[in-house]
Structures are given as structure tokens and as C-alpha cells.
Specification:
heterotrimer, A alpha/beta, B mainly alpha, C mainly alpha, A: 18 strands, globular, C: two-stranded antiparallel sheet
Chain lengths: 427, 307, 288
């Protein structure tokens, strides 16, 4: 009897505490607008891509603020970062969460700009409507490789002109990739490819484009296999690749399970060079964690910058600064893009001399500066970053191979530090 | 008289007035989202405690309702006034059709089948890459105004809640409750239980599809995440927190849990940890639910009444 | 041949993942949705012992398994016991605890792809023309050994027999002096230990991520449904059916249809024979 009365009392207390919490959060003062420029960052904080974006952005903001801030028509103002966890990369979470988070950043936290995410294409596409409705400029710097994003901007410019993207898109990514494969064909005389892609829109699109493009170059594409997200066994596909004598294996995955693919590749000693978009292998610690089984894998980074190279001066400062602040080298391409996106915004604000979207948008369209992945220029028609040329002229991606425990750039030739190496069982 | 009416009136008034007193638009949005979840919780509670069917397919309803509404809007340009009702009824019919084969089985097995359906649909849409595939269909029509949104969804929620409460006391509802208690006895009375169960599932799925259709037009988007597991699990949590069997409990539960989840967002990844711990705590230590608890407390106090 | 060997490996992996869940459900009728969380808990704990504390591999494994068994028992004894008998509350409570544990790891930063456990033996060997790595062979061995040990345990030791007794008829066992609560705690501890053993042999194949926890839970439930809740042979049968179905679909139809096939299997099983292939769950009461 006594025990249940006590529990009842605690129950009522809990109810009151809950109510008080509710009021406290509801009545908490909105962030004041006066000095800082608020950057709203809706990302999935519990995922590697989100962590990368967060790191890139916070590092850049720190550097810029330490140097005095952003010059807005004469007044120097600091950046302020408001990060909201959208959980949009998680499987069971509806996109409505991400949209709510983005809207909240704009309405409650008074974000002047949205940078970074949302990271998942589905969420970002839906968020376009949210940011456009609130007339807030948004620059994507992580994920969202779907071609649909820039297409929407182009088709309905007046509605979606607030949306910019620096991450890349499948079509130009594949264009660059095909050039790399052409150069491999010329150098090594390979002509048989086996493609394995993840079952998501951008990977499937990539797979199809690769098949088409490679066959035009004269390659024989032995297979194009699609694996659902979360697959843990690739033995069947790998055996088929081995039996059909493939010379290069093209994985295109952003799920972490691809490390299983690589381990199996190594253990089964498949005589095909793995070269593709193997997101999980971008982490600096992958070599140690797999006991070196990722050796010889050539990993595509949608944008360069995570590995320092003389051809891109900004990367030579970025990589050690990142290591100093976070203890590890930059991981995926999104760290590099998120770092640069803050500088892009700073540059545009300083040229526009105001925060008004009507002046910022044309200023962004005229962007022409050097970033951690080459030169930054936007296509004014669809607000997509221009890539795939010389790093002095456009943004570039990079291919880094795992050689002797280090990520070493092997393509494109203009920024490469070493040439391609073959696994010993392929000689 | 007032004593009996006070809880209900304060609940109705509270819900109608709340959007006016919250400080910002996001909280109003949260209120709409809570109502959508509340509708899902309502349909779950109705099936679980009045018909004896534990249906974990909340996501199935939102997915089907949302996609139908979205497709009608994007492919045929039909306005929301048409798409939402059509999606509600058509969606309800489609969901019921899929659930009919599973009606004869009971208990945990039906629950698991209904849990699997949304995942199945998700994978099929993904594999066939139809209806926008993994990108979804953005850019649909939205409610013209946050107020229209609020004062469409909130009254609908109230109407459906109290409508159902009325229904379970009508003949139809009594038969359903009898089926829950002892279906063989009902069968022996020469009543076709399958037909009654089908009708009950239809009611529940129309409510769910309505929620899904509204969700699609809230942000103007449909996508694979309409089949997200969250939509199946949240209703159960809301029902357990609010008190199953009362039909008002789940609504209250949803109105507590959804804003709670949003308030905890500031904690980043720790948010889900807190949220699940609070949920576990409520389930384990306050197992009867809020509404029965409040009911008990309300009736506990002595009062004078005029005769 | 290829398909046979990898199908076998896949099936044993599924059986191992499901065994802990099946044990707990079979004995105490508690659907332990924290199963996946305990699985990755062992994985991360072993990693931590190995890399941060510096214990050797075997020691880390043993410590983690003991830790998770104790945790499993504690969770039951102090938390889940209060919602015993109410299936909806049990599921929510155990699921919520499981999610809390998994998300705790996410918050503490265990999210990169670099969390891996080293395999027990490196290298691979060729069997009948198929290259297979030692770790997978070890999995097959351990899986079969566990099945055997469990069978022996539940048929020849006092504690094991009491577990079976409770599973068969609670009231009769209570009359014989077997306490259902204590048995439930033991079964949960054992179930956690089983998921731990599964974790340490399977995780070296890939990496440890929080998503693995959710995946393990789903797989365990799928296997138990198809094979039949409450039956050991059922777990095995279900695992093999599912394991081979997955591999065959991947090989002949296409990997993207794998999940669809699995789900269809589950739905068909539930519609046609709800107690699963070999389940002994009160069949007559299920159908109306």
C-alpha cells in the first residue's frame, strides 16, 4: 500500500516535471539576431557523413571567426553554427523529421543560411520546398548525389533559386570516372569489368551510366549486380567475377558493409582490381581495422581535399589543421566540401555586401575562388558546382589507393602523387 | 452534470486552443504532426483493444494513403480537396484487401505480418524503382496556410476520436468487443465474424490512410520513408503511455510523446537515448497509462453534488 | 558448390543470431527486443577491452560475454519483470531499452566504419574449388557446436531441464518447485550470452555498426517465425530455409530481390502455417 502511494507520488511529480520542461523549452528566448550570422546545419549527427560535415563546418567557422569574421558591407560579423540532428540517414525515420528540423532552424533559430544537409537525397529534395518557401539560401555540402536536385532548380528556377549544391551529381561524377577508366585501359590494357552497386537511386544510376560509358570505350561489362542496403555477403558475386575473369571490379556503395566486400575480396584473392565509390574505405583508420585487407582498393572521393596534394594548395593547410583539431585526418569528401562551403558563403556575402537573398544569389552564381578541391564555380542555370577539368579551372574529385597503409592519390593525373599499383596475385 | 463533462470539454477545448497559445510556427507544425501520429495511435488502439487485433502496420497505412494522395496530385494534378478523401477511402480499401488474408490468424502472428507489409512495399517500390523510387516525389500541393492545416486536422482528430468512442457503444461496436472476448461464442450466435473484422480493419485503415494523405500534403512530399518503421512503433508507444482501451489515451499519448521527442532534439544523438529511456520508464512503472491514471485521480476526490 | 557452402555459412549465421532470441522466448514467453542491442554490446565491449584496456583477444571475449549475460539478467530482474505477462508492454519496454543501448553507442561516437574485430585465424582455404576463409569455417563449427551443447544442456543438466519444463508447462513446473522468475532470469542471461557468442564469431567478418543491431533483431525474428517459436529444430530449419533462400535469390534472380523474397516467405508462413515450420505453439487456438 505504502509502496504504491509512493510510486503515485513520483508519478505526479514526473508529470509536473514534464510539464515544467515543456514550458521551459517553449518559453526559452529565441536566439538574438543582432550580431552573428547564423548558419543552420541540418545533418544526421549520429552518422559518419554527418560527423564529417559537422567537422568541416565547425573547423572553417572557427578559422573565419578567429580571423575576425565576415565583412558584411563594412561591419565584421562572426558566423554562428546551429546544428540540428535530423536523423535523416537512419532507416526507420521519416523524412518529415528532417523537414521539421530544417524549418525549425529557419523559424526558431533564425538561420540566415542553411548549409550542409539534409544528407539523404529524398530529404534534401523535399527540403527544397521548405527553404524556398522561407526564402532562405541553402548550399548543400554533403551527400545528395541525385541528379534530380539540380534538375529541379533548372526546371523551376524562380521557385528554387535558393538552392545550391557543391557535392556533385552522378552524371559528372561518372563522366570523370569514365575518363579515369579510359586512362587505365590505355595504361594496362584491361577490358573486362564487373560492376557491383548498392540498391539506392544514385548508385543504380551510376551503375547504368558506367555500363553504357564503358561499353562505348570498348570494355566488356561482364555483369551489373545490385545489392540491397545492408547486404553482408558478397561471396556469390565475387566468385562470379573471378570465374568470368574480370580485370577490374567496380563497387559503388556508401553503406559500411562494403568493408565485408573488401575483406572477402582480399581473402578470396580475386584477380580484379577494386576501383569504385567505396565510401567506407575513406576512413583513415580502415587499414588498421581490416589488418590491411583494403590494400590496393582504389577509392573515389566525389571531391578532393581529404588527402593533401601540392596541386591544390588549400588542401595542404586543411589536412593538418583538421588533424590538429580532431585528431584524425579528414575522412570523406564531405569534410572537404563542408569546409569549403563556409568559405564560399563568406566570399559571396562579402561581395554582395549584405545578407539579402536577392543579392546573395547572384553573388553565389558569380563565385570564382579556390577551395580544398580545386576551383569553385557554379553553373548559373542549375546552381550545380562545375567539375571535372583541371583543378586550376574546376572542382575535381580524386581517386586514392590504399598503398602501404596510406591513402595515396593515383588519379586524376594532375593531382596524383603516385601511380596505380596492382595486387601481387594479379601479376 | 458538469463533473462528468469537465474532462471531455477541457480536452476538446485544450486541443482547439493550444495552437493559438504556442509561441512559434514550429510548435504548431509539431502539433499537426502530433495529430497525425495521434490518428495512427487511435486506429491502433481501436483495433487492439476493441477488436482484439494487434496491428503493427501503421506505416502501411501512412505509406499507402500518402502515396495514393501524392500520385493523384503529381500525376493528374488533382487538388488536395479531391486527393485526400480519395486517398483515404481508396487507401483504406487497398489496405483492408491486403490484410483480409491475415484476419483468420490472431495474436502475435497478425502483428508481425502487418509489421512486414510496409517493409515489403518499401522494398518492392525500391526494387521496381516506381513512384519516384528512392528519391520520392517532392513538390506536391501543400495546405495553403498553417491555420487551415491546423484547423482541418485537429477537428478531424477530435471527430474521429469521439466518433469511435460512440461507435464502440453502438451495436456494431458491441459485436466487435464480443469478438475480442470470445469469438467462438459470437460465431455460435450466427454472426459472421470475418465480415465484422473486415469492417473494423477498414475503419482503422481509413483513419491511418487519412493520416498518411495529410502527411503527404503537410510538406508536399511522398517518399519511401512514408513506410518508415517509426509510424508503426510510435502508435504503440503512444497507446501504452496514454492508456489503451480508452481511445482518448492514445491521442494524449501522442500529444505527449511527439513534442517530447522534438524538445529533446537539442541533445543530438543523446536524444533517442533519453526518449527511449523515458518511454521504457513510463511503460514499466506507469503501466496503466496516463488517461486511466488521470481518471482515477479525478474520481478520487470527494465533492458535493446537488441532487 | 559455391552456393552450397555460402548458403551453409549464411544459414548458420542466421541460426546463431536467432538462438538467443528463441531461447528467451521459448522459456519465458518474453520477446526480447533488446536482443540486437546486446549483440552489438558484446561487439563493442570486446573491441574496447581489446583496444582500450589492452586485454588479449580471448580474455576480451570472455569478459564481454560475462558482462552481457549479467546485464541481460539484470535487465530482466529489475525492469522487464514488472511488465511480465503483458505482451505489448514487454515488447515496447525491451525495444526501448534496446534502442537506448544502441543509441548510447552512437552518441559516444562508435559510428565510423573503422570498428572491427580481428578474425580468429587469418587466411583462407580452398574446399572443393571454392575459396573460403577460415573465419567462416569457424562459424560453421561454432554454430554446430553451440546447437549440440544447447541440446545436451537442456536435456541432461538440472538447470537445462528446468528451462524445458517451464517452457512446456509453467504451472506443472511450479508445482515441482521450479521458480519461473529465477528460470526466466537464467534464460535471459543465457540468451544474452548466446547472442554474445554469435556476435564474436560473426562480427570479424565485417564491421560493428549500430545498424547491425537492428538487422540482427529483424533476422532473429524472421528465423523464429519461419521456423516456429518454441522449437529448437524450428530455429535450425528456419535458419536454413531463410539462409539458402537468400543466397539462391542473390545468385539467380538478383540481390535486390533478396529482402522481398524473405518478406514474402514470412508473410506466407504466417498466413498458411502461423506456428512456423516446426513450431509447437498451440496451433488449434490460432485459427479462427
Amino acid at each position: 500500500m505504502k509502496k504504491s502511494a509512493l510510486i503515485d507520488l513520483i508519478g505526479i511529480k514526473m508529470l509536473f516535471i514534464l510539464l515544467i520542461l515543456l514550458f521551459a523549452c517553449v518559453l526559452s528566448p529565441a536566439l538574438s539576431f543582432s550580431q552573428p550570422i547564423v548558419l543552420g546545419v541540418p545533418i544526421s549527427r549520429g552518422y559518419p557523413d554527418g560527423v564529417d560535415a559537422e567537422r568541416g563546418i565547425t573547423l572553417a567557422v572557427e578559422e573565419i571567426n578567429a580571423a575576425g569574421g565576415v565583412n558584411v558591407g563594412g561591419a565584421k560579423r562572426p558566423f554562428k553554427v546551429e546544428i540540428s540532428d535530423t536523423r535523416d540517414l537512419e532507416a526507420g525515420v521519416p523524412v518529415a523529421e528532417a523537414l521539421l528540423a530544417t524549418e525549425r532552424l529557419i523559424i526558431e533559430q533564425k538561420a540566415n543560411f542553411i548549409v550542409g544537409g539534409p544528407i539523404r537525397s529524398e530529404a534534401a529534395l523535399a527540403a527544397m520546398d521548405v527553404v524556398s518557401k522561407h526564402k532562405t539560401v541553402s548550399i548543400l555540402s554533403a551527400g545528395v548525389l541525385s541528379p534530380a536536385y539540380s534538375k529541379r532548380v533548372e526546371e523551376n528556377y524562380d521557385k528554387y533559386k535558393y538552392c545550391f549544391r557543391t557535392t556533385g551529381s552522378v552524371v559528372p561524377m561518372i563522366g570523370g570516372t569514365l575518363k579515369t577508366f579510359e586512362s587505365i585501359k590505355a595504361k594496362k590494357g584491361f577490358d573486362k569489368a564487373y560492376i557491383m552497386v548498392q540498391d539506392v537511386a544514385h548508385a543504380r544510376a551510376a551503375g547504368n551510366l558506367l555500363k553504357e560509358g564503358l561499353e562505348k570505350q570498348g570494355w566488356k561489362v561482364l555483369a551489373l549486380e545490385i545489392y540491397p542496403t545492408g547486404t553482408t555477403d558478397f561471396s556469390v558475386g565475387l566468385s562470379k567475377a573471378k570465374d568470368s575473369k574480370a580485370q577490374i571490379l567496380i563497387p559503388w556503395f556508401d553503406m559500411p558493409e562494403v568493408s565485408i566486400l573488401m575483406k572477402q575480396w582480399f581473402d578470396m584473392k580475386i584477380p580484379a582490381l577494386p576501383i569504385g565509390y567505396i565510401h567506407a574505405l575513406q576512413d583513415e583508420g580502415t587499414w588498421k581495422a581490416t589488418d590491411g585487407k583494403v590494400a590496393y582498393a582504389v577509392v573515389l572521393y566525389a571531391k578532393a581535399g581529404s588527402v593533401a596534394t601540392k596541386a591544390i594548395p588549400m588542401s595542404e593547410g586543411f589536412v593538418p589543421n583538421h588533424k590538429k583539431k580532431f585528431g584524425v585526418e579528414p575522412r570523406s569528401e564531405w569534410t572537404s566540401t563542408s569546409y569549403t562551403v563556409v568559405y564560399i558563403l563568406k566570399d559571396a556575402i562579402e561581395r554582395a555586401k549584405s545578407l539579402n537573398p536577392d543579392t546573395i544569389i547572384p553573388a553565389l552564381e558569380k563565385t570564382d575562388m579556390m577551395g580544398t578541391y580545386g576551383r569553385v564555380k557554379f553553373d548559373p542555370k542549375n546552381h550545380q558546382i562545375i567539375e571535372n577539368g583541371d583543378p586550376k579551372e574546376t572542382a575535381v574529385g580524386m581517386w586514392a589507393q590504399w598503398i602501404d597503409g596510406k591513402r595515396t592519390i593515383v588519379f586524376p593525373d594532375k593531382i596524383a602523387t603516385k601511380s596505380l599499383e596492382m595486387p601481387p596475385w594479379m601479376k | 452534470m458538469a463533473y462528468a463533462l469537465l474532462p471531455m470539454v477541457s480536452f476538446v477545448l485544450g486541443m482547439l486552443v493550444l495552437p493559438l497559445v504556442v509561441p512559434s510556427m514550429t510548435w504548431q507544425r509539431i502539433m499537426t504532426l502530433s495529430c497525425i501520429f495521434a490518428l495512427l495511435a487511435l486506429s491502433f488502439d481501436f483495433l487492439a483493444h476493441f477488436v482484439g487485433i494487434v496491428c503493427l502496420g501503421g506505416a502501411f497505412f501512412t505509406g499507402v494513403g500518402g502515396y495514393i494522395s501524392g500520385l493523384l496530385n503529381s500525376a493528374f494534378g488533382l487538388p488536395m480537396i479531391i486527393t485526400i478523401p480519395v486517398a483515404t477511402i481508396a487507401g483504406g480499401a487497398i489496405c483492408t484487401l491486403f490484410l483480409i488474408p491475415c484476419l483468420p490468424i490472431r495474436g502475435i502472428y497478425f502483428a508481425i505480418v502487418s509489421l512486414m507489409y510496409p517493409i515489403l512495399f518499401h522494398r518492392v517500390i525500391q526494387a521496381l524503382n516506381i513512384f519516384g523510387g528512392t528519391d520520392g516525389l517532392p513538390g506536391l500541393a501543400t495546405f495553403p496556410n498553417i491555420w487551415v492545416e491546423l484547423y482541418f486536422i485537429i477537428p478531424m482528430t477530435l471527430i474521429l476520436t469521439f466518433g469511435l468512442r460512440r461507435l464502440v457503444n453502438e451495436d456494431f461496436g458491441i459485436v466487435l468487443r464480443a469478438i475480442k472476448d470470445n469469438d467462438q461464442a459470437v460465431r455460435a450466435s450466427n454472426i459472421n465474424i470475418s465480415w465484422y473484422k473486415t469492417k473494423a480493419v477498414f475503419i482503422a485503415s481509413t483513419i491511418g490512410c487519412f493520416a498518411g494523405a495529410c502527411l503527404a500534403h503537410l510538406y508536399g512530399w511522398v517518399g519511401l520513408s512514408l513506410f518508415a518503421l517509426d509510424f508503426s512503433i510510435f502508435p504503440i508507444a503512444a497507446t501504452v503511455v496514454g492508456g489503451g482501451g480508452t481511445l482518448v489515451g492514445p491521442i494524449l499519448g501522442a500529444l505527449i510523446l511527439a513534442p517530447l521527442s522534438e524538445m529533446l532534439r537539442a541533445f543530438g544523438p543523446l536524444r533517442v537515448v533519453f526518449y527511449s529511456l523515458i518511454l521504457a520508464g513510463l511503460v514499466i512503472f506507469k503501466t496503466e497509462g496516463f488517461v486511466p491514471f488521470l481518471e482515477r485521480k479525478y474520481h478520487q476526490f470527494e465533492r458535493w453534488t446537488e441532487i | 558448390m559455391n552456393i552450397f557452402i555460402f548458403g551453409l555459412v549464411n544459414s548458420v549465421i542466421l541460426a546463431l543470431m536467432a538462438s538467443g532470441f528463441a531461447l528467451v522466448y521459448g522459456v519465458s514467453r518474453l520477446a526480447n527486443f533488446a536482443h540486437g542491442a546486446l549483440y552489438i554490446l558484446v561487439g563493442f565491449a570486446t573491441w574496447l577491452f581489446l583496444n582500450r584496456v589492452g586485454v588479449n583477444y580471448i580474455g576480451s571475449i570472455i569478459l564481454s560475454i560475462i558482462a552481457v549475460s549479467v546485464l541481460g539478467g539484470v535487465i530482466y530482474r529489475f525492469l522487464l519483470i514488472r511488465v511480465k505477462g503483458m505482451p505489448a508492454s514487454e515488447i515496447i519496454a525491451s525495444l526501448a531499452i534496446g534502442i537506448a543501448i544502441m543509441e548510447l553507442f552512437r552518441w559516444r561516437g562508435f559510428i565510423s566504419e573503422a570498428y572491427m574485430l580481428p578474425p580468429f585465424v587469418n587466411g583462407s582455404v580452398s574446399i572443393a574449388g571454392v575459396m573460403i576463409d577460415w573465419q567462416r569455417l569457424i562459424i560453421i563449427g561454432v554454430g554446430l557446436a553451440i546447437m549440440l551443447l544447447l541440446w545436451l544442456f537442456t536435456h541432461h543438466t538440472k538447470v537445462g531441464l528446468s528451462l524445458r519444463a517451464i517452457a512446456q508447462d509453467k504451472h506443472a513446473s511450479m508445482m515441482s518447485g521450479i521458480e519461473p522468475d529465477r528460470t526466466a532470469v537464467i534464460s535471459l542471461a543465457m540468451g544474452s550470452a548466446l547472442s554474445g557468442i554469435a556476435a564474436v564469431v560473426i562480427l570479424p567478418l565485417g564491421n560493428i555498426t549500430v545498424e547491425t543491431g537492428y538487422m540482427v533483431l529483424t533476422n532473429a525474428i524472421a528465423v523464429c517465425i519461419i521456423g516456429g517459436l518454441g522449437s529448437w529444430a524450428g530455429v535450425f530449419a528456419g535458419a536454413f530455409l531463410l539462409g539458402f533462400a537468400e543466397i539462391l535469390t542473390a545468385a539467380f534472380i538478383g540481390p535486390q530481390w533478396q529482402m522481398v523474397v524473405v518478406l514474402l516467405f514470412i508473410i506466407l508462413t504466417l498466413i498458411l502455417k502461423p506456428s512456423g515450420l516446426l513450431g509447437k505453439q498451440k496451433e488449434l487456438e490460432e485459427r479462427v
